[in-house]
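Thread: quick sanity check before group meeting

JM: Hey all, I'm pulling together slides for Thursday and realized we never actually wrote out the predicted structure for the chain we discussed last week. Dropping the sequence here so it's in one place. If anyone has concerns about the input, flag it before I start.
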Amino acid sequence: MIRRAICAAAVLAALAGTARAQGEPCPATPPPPAISVPHVAAAMKANEEVVIVAIGSSSTQSWMSSNPAHSYPAVLQADLEKAFPTAHFAVINRGIGGQDAAEEVTRLDGDVMVVRPQLVIWQVGANGVLRQTGTDVFKKLVSAGIARLQAAKLDVVLMDNQRSPMIVAAPDHLKIDQALVDLAHDANISLFQRSRLMDGWRDAGVPYATFVSPDGLHLNDLGYRCTADALAAALIEGLRRPATNMQVSAMDKARDAAAGTQIK
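JM (edit): ok, ran it. Output follows.
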């Protein structure tokens, strides 16, 4: 009886949080930097469908959201379609709870390449933090994955960790955040920093707990929605300065040259 009462209380708390999240606005904070996605821009210019794959762990699968429509990939697709009503976007959710870089790298061919996206958003590092994977191993795994994605001539955006109690309590969480900064810099790709976004919300007077579910790890509906809205804003701003097909070709050739391959 006691266990049932506790479970019922948790369900009621989650439902109450969902109701608040649906009507609560996101904090008014400075937007994240624009994200350049030249392959997406080129597809839009050619009137092609834009395919985006969101790969990651439970943060991408969106555990603790009230339903799949409140996952960050679903909200991201809605935001992009609203901003560009004449374009068509398909944001495919390839999140699997409990995974991190080691497992996700092995899924790149079957879960990402197979659908031939223009953009891959890779949320990675949370389970690495919780498992204490170590930054050297983590960086090698993610670097190998980035190289494979870039070799396929895709836009790549990394996403770092949320500010939830379980993540913040882990000893290496700041080291993993910095590793992702270094990886993005070295590969010349964008990093969407949930950590900095949530720090901004806190600095604006809205505590982390507002966006975190009762399990102390995952975001709630409001957290997923505000994350997606901020990511969409960064992508939209980048798409307002689209790269030409020639710029995309030059970028691809530069990447191939850096990898030691020859373009003919």
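AS: nice. Residues 2-256 form a domain with the Rossmann fold fold (CATH 3.40.50.1110). Strands lie at 50-56, 89-95, 119-123, 155-159, 190-192.
JM: adding both to the slides.
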